[in-house]
Amino acid sequence: xxxxxxxxxxxxxxxxxxxxxxxxxxxxxxxxxxxxxxxxxxxxxxxxxxxxxxxxxxxxxxxxxxxxxxxxxxxxxxxxxxxxxxxxxxxxxxxxxxxxxxxxxxxxxxxxxxxxxxxxxxxxxxxxxxxxxxxxxxxxxxxxxxxxxxxxxxxxxxxxxxxxxxxxxxxxxxxxxxxxxxxxxxxxxxxxxxxxxxxxxxxxxxxxxxxxxxxxxxxxxxxxxxxxxxxxxxxxxxxxxxxxxxxxxxxxxxxxxxxxxxxxxxxxxxxxxxxxxxxxxxxxxxxxxxxxxxxxxxxxxxxx
Length: 304
Ligand SMILES: C[S@@+](CC[C@H](N)C(=O)[O-])C[C@H]1O[C@@H](n2cnc3c(N)ncnc32)[C@H](O)[C@@H]1O
What we know:
It contains 9 helices and 9 strands. By secondary structure, the chain is of the alpha/beta class. α2 packs across α3 and α3 packs across α4.
């Protein structure tokens, strides 16, 4: 058994399910804002064991197998039971998968054009609102890859934190701008229509927040995702990953994720988890399938 180190464990009160009407973990709740008082928490500090080397290796084998099988998939792959259940509950997930696979570069644009966006919560992610409101997020330049409608970009933006939302889809960026341009904090964020994998940013970031982007890209792109994180973050910058969906379904998007999936691509680049906790503020059916990971690079100092 190895230990990730001393981690902060946050036991947040759950949001009130009366406000939420969810039919799947990748579907849209009613758009009600949640008052900050719902995010009260207690905080303990304990040592958390991570997966041992054996389970980590088997996870990695599973990832390789899953990646190979996903790469072979074309339209309409065989679905596992949990995948099929997800689709039965929310037919938009199936439509989204077919659209994304139908055109490798333009599939996301088609989803936005046809309003097939089952991932869109219609509100900021509660845990990011909570971290922002409690002063638990780094300040400085921040980036949200695959930002979609931009709710999280807007939620984190403030005079001390300038946030850049990046999305491949023209329609998504237009929607994000339309939703947010008249907000009082509009001077503290911007939206760019760019491909995360090829975009040349003139400045590095203090914080990058990834939610439902890692699980949206083909698993074969995960190493490239990690390299981009490394090249876009300042050496002492922080990467926050809200890991979802932690499950065992086949296919995607959303592709299943595990802590080991992130470790596999981030560890070789020197990133280590500062903390990994269950997200008790996950919405509806996403509950129990999300973990919040905070990663930093270990900077090796020259002795000279
Ligand atoms: C599953 S959605 C998540 C959107 C948003 N993070 C949310 O939680 O609502 C994935 C988003 O990533 C965008 N996307 C996909 N590939 C991208 C790429 N290479 N660069 C930038 N954005 C990309 C899609 O257009 C889509 O808006």
